[in-house]
Design brief:
Blueprint lengths: L1 H6 L7 H22 L3 E10 L4 E12 L5 E2 L1 H11 L2 H21 L6 E5 L2 H4 L4 H12 L6 E6 H5 L2 H13 L3 E7 L6 H6 L4 E4 L1 H9 L6 H12 L2 E5 L4 H9 L4 E3 L9 H9 L1 H4 L3
Parallel strand pairs: 2-4, 4-5, 5-6, 6-7, 7-8, 8-9
Antiparallel strand pairs: 1-2, 1-9, 2-3
Helix pairs in contact: 2-3, 4-6, 10-12
The structure holds ligand C2E and magnesium ion (3 copies).
The site of one magnesium ion has 5 residues, from strand 6.
Length: 283
């Protein structure tokens, strides 16, 4: 009997696979409930001008704290949100929340401040994306020239023609585009040149590397050069110590983000941080 079942094409999952799938489904339900009950929130991590050590913007990052107080990393729940389609509504909510915070910061006198918002590829490929973006900007009154969308390099690698067309349309709204986690994919120079992008974000792994290895040239250095050659702004992410900040500055990297300067913080904390510490200078 077992034999005939096999021939009929039954799949046999290993026990650990079953556990993994159950866990994912459980988390998907919990995430949906948490989102419905407003248990998700957005934190903001300042971005710093390395020459002046003054804040120039912030990246919006999503947080999920469960009812029993545990934080679940976005690296875990974003893929589940993508898989379940929940990312469409969640991403729209992040977009609107971050745009509203940008408007609030401007009202408090922090003009010239940029807001960077992560966009999932599932969101990006959704037919409603452009409309969603336009509406978020219009409804919140966020000035598009101070809004930046972060897409990952791996995402930029798929379906080049579609991406090029989408970026063109997005750019027409006035927002700018950054390639996140840059250096982890394999975009060619000629391909990058065809993309209407504004910034490259050096992945944290390559920032860590500049103080870790004894090699003369680093990937970080190459990305900074690439940015210069293509006329793109460059920002380093995950800067944790002063030596990294100094090396990056010396290499000509204008901007940075990382625990050295500030951790991601709530909107209230960001307001306070910008009005107090930051204006005295972080260094
Ligand atoms: P990301 O966009 O590359 O964000 C940077 C991550 O590095 C954040 O992790 C941030 O908290 C962390 N980080 C910043 N400075 C440092 C540092 O000095 N040292 C270390 N070790 N880490 C640092 P987080 O908030 O856990 O987010 C992880 C990823 O989840 C993000 O990577 C992004 O890909 C995704 N994500 C977060 N929020 C959203 C969102 O609203 N939408 C989408 N689609 N993805 C999001
Ligand atoms: Mg990002
Ligand atoms: Mg990144
Ligand atoms: Mg990342």
């Amino acid at each position: 009997r077992a034999k005939s079942q096999q021939r009929a094409g039954h799949f046999y999952f290993s026990r650990s696979m079953g556990v993994e799938i159950r866990e994912r489904v459980r988390m998907m339900h919990a995430l949906r409930t948490a989102f419905g009950q407003n248990q998700l929130f957005v934190v903001y991590q300042p971005q710093i001008d390395l020459a002046t050590r003054r804040p120039v913007g912030a990246e919006a990052l999503l947080r999920w704290q469960t009812a029993d107080g545990k934080f679940i990393s976005p690296d875990r729940f974003i893929p589940i949100a993508e898989y379940s389609g929940l990312i469409i509504d969640m991403g729209e909510w992040v977009m609107r929340t971050a745009c509203r915070e940008l408007v609030a910061l401007r009202a408090a006198g922090h003009d010239n401040f940029m807001m960077s918002i992560n966009v999932s590829q599932v969101q990006f490929r959704h037919p409603y994306f452009l409309e969603m973006l336009r509406r978020a900007l219009a409804d919140t009154g966020a000035p598009p020239e101070f809004v930046e969308l972060e897409i990952t390099e791996s995402m930029a690698m798929e379906e080049p023609d579609l991406l090029i067309k989408m970026l063109g349309q997005i750019k027409q709204t006035g927002v700018s585009i950054a390639i996140d986690d840059f250096g982890t994919g394999f975009s060619s120079l000629s391909y990058l040149q065809r993309l209407q992008i504004d910034r490259l974000k050096i992945d944290r792994a390559f920032v860590t590397e500049i103080t870790g290895s004894a090699r003369g040239s680093s990937i970080a250095e190459m990305v900074i050069q690439l940015g210069r050659n293509l006329g793109l702004a460059v920002i380093a992410e995950g800067v944790e110590d002063e030596r990294q900040a100094q090396i990056l500055h010396t290499l000509g990297c204008p901007l940075a983000q990382g625990f050295l300067f500030a951790r991601p913080m709530t909107a209230d904390a960001l307001n306070g941080w910008l009005s107090n510490d930051a204006l005295e200078g972080v260094a």
